[in-house]
Structures are given as C-alpha cells and as structure tokens.
Design goal:
- This protein is of the alpha/beta class.
- It contains 12 helices and 11 strands.
- The strands form 2 sheets. Strands 1, 2, 4, 5, 6, 8, 9, 10 and 11 form a 9-stranded mixed beta sheet that branches. Strands 3-7 form a two-stranded parallel sheet.
- Helix 2 (about 25-35) runs antiparallel to helix 4 (about 60-70), helix 3 (about 50-55) packs antiparallel against helix 7 (about 165-170) and helix 6 (about 110-115) runs antiparallel to helix 7.
- It starts with a helix and ends with a helix.
C-alpha cells in the first residue's frame, strides 16, 4: 500500500499533429484527459495542433474550446488574398510585370482570432511549457517557438522564445500555397509540418518522460479527391502519417490515430463529430496511458 502511494507518476507531454480541420479531434483528446484528471505537463503543436496547444497553454479549457469551435464561421479564420490574386493575374497577362502569388489566403484572420482568444499572451505567459513548430521556407530551417529550455545542438534548428502565441500559431499554420508565409524576424515562416508534422522531437528535446502523440493522418484512403483544397488537404494527411512514423516509433511512448475523414478548410459541419472522434480515440487508449504514466 505504502509502495503504491509513493510511486512516482511520470510527467506527460502531448504532441498535437497537423491535419487541417481534422484538428478539432485534439479537443476531444484533451477533454478525456481532463475528465480523468490526468495533468498535461508539456504540450507541443504543429499547424492546427499549434492552435489547440496555444489555447490550452493560455488557460482555455477543452470544454470551452468546443463551445468556441461550434460557434466558428469560415469568415472568422479565412481571408481570401483577392488583391494578391488579381495582381498575379495581371502579371500573367501583361508582359514585363511580375507579381508572384504567395498564397490563396492572407492568414491575418487566424492570427487575429488567436490573439483575441489568448488575450494577447506571449510564449512566456503560458501556464505550462509549450513548443510550436514552423519552418523558414527560405533556409529550410526548423523553427521552434518555446518558453522553456530545449536541448538542441543542430544547425538547422532555431529557437524563438520571445513572441506572441498568435505570431507562433500564424507561422505554424501557414500551409504553403494556401496561406501567405508569416513574416517573423525577417524570415518567411510556413507550416511546421514540413519539418515535424507531429512534434514528438520537440518534446523529446524538452526532456519529457512520457510522450503521447496524436497523428491525424491515415495509412489508406477510400475516397478520391477533387479540386485544389481537397488535394492540399489530402497531401497534408499523407505527410502527417508518413513523415511522422519513424519519429513516433523511436521517440513517442504512445500514439493515437483518431478516425476522422477528410474535411475541407471551410466545412464546419463536422466539428462536433470530429471532437467526438477524438474523445473516442482517447478513451480507447486511456488505460494504456494511465499504465504507462504509472497511475494504475
């Protein structure tokens, strides 16, 4: 009895992967952990995972996140780059005039939304250690926004500790072609999935004892894709699964694959079912997690 009571429970680090609107499943994962009273000691996110990680680290409960998600409208986070597209079209038609198209969406609304929800908090204001992954598209360097010490001696890795959460998220979610790259410290930053779709490496460098990874990708697909947004979404899904397999096998203690179908960037009709899928996936593995952490 005394031995069981004195048994030390391992600290938990949660790695939330990218995957577009499939990322609402992360909310369900967090809800089950909160219901079971399992504390999250470290959190890391890539792309949509960075949004959920930032909201959680700023103090927003996963149940309030669900309320916010159900109220969300496409216009709250999607802002078409009409002027950029017009200038690009003009450049194609007029000889000697060039205006490269950097993205279909500007990305300003996502940054503004996260800024509002997190109340302008910075990385240093977070209630737990956090890591948000992005990539400098010019140099190919991995960028990690964090508020804690990271053991890293890599030339292709840059650590940023002074930034607002909204800035870090804006960089991490900037899917190439879809969003204009984020300008941070004279760099052009894009989706962190290019370097680490499920950020288990970041947590490992933070010294996390037990890493739970959430991968929104899938090994196989049944439905064909049509149109640029579906193609981009499917590409992200494939990246999420394939580029993270090796890292997860070697570094993650446990991996969850919520079963969520592809969702278009402006399709919010599946918010509730996607959150529910996250809850289901976490409940299915909750005993394994508690055993791994030393709770049972």
């Amino acid at each position: 009895m005394g031995d069981n009571m004195s048994k030390k429970v391992k600290s938990l680090g949660l790695a939330l992967g990218g995957g577009g609107l499939k990322g609402f499943a992360h909310i369900g994962i967090l809800q089950v952990l909160e219901q079971r009273g399992i504390p999250i000691n470290f959190i890391a996110g890539t792309s949509v995972g960075s949004i959920i990680a930032a909201l959680y680290a700023s103090g927003i409960s996963p149940f309030h996140m669900e309320t916010l998600a159900l109220r969300l409208q496409p216009g709250d986070y999607l802002d078409y780059n009409y002027w950029g597209m017009l200038k690009h079209l003009f450049g194609l038609l007029k000889s000697g005039y060039e205006s490269p198209l950097e993205g279909i969406f500007k990305g300003d609304k996502i940054e503004q939304l996260v800024e509002k929800l997190t109340r302008g908090k910075t990385l240093q204001d977070c209630r737990l250690p956090i890591a948000i992954v992005a990539c400098d598209i010019d140099s190919g360097q991995e960028i990690i926004f964090t508020n804690t010490h990271i053991e890293a001696d890599q030339e292709d890795l840059l650590i940023i500790r002074e930034a607002r959460l909204s800035q870090a998220v804006r960089a991490s979610v900037s899917i190439p072609v879809t969003f204009i790259p984020a300008r941070v410290y004279n760099m052009q930053l894009v989706d962190g999935g290019i370097k680490s779709m499920v950020p288990v490496v970041s947590l490992k460098m933070m010294g996390v004892p037990y890493i739970l990874a959430v991968n929104l990708g899938s090994p196989r697909y049944r439905h064909p894709v049509r149109g640029i947004f579906q193609i981009i979404s499917r590409s992200i899904d494939i990246l999420a699964y394939e580029t993270s397999k090796t890292e997860q096998q070697w570094l993650a203690d446990q991996v969850i694959y919520p079963q969520v179908p592809a969702i278009k960037l402006d399709d919010l009709s599946k918010v509730e079912s996607t959150i529910r899928a996250g809850r289901k996936a976490m409940r299915h593995q909750i005993n394994l997690l508690e055993s791994g952490l030393g709770i049972l």
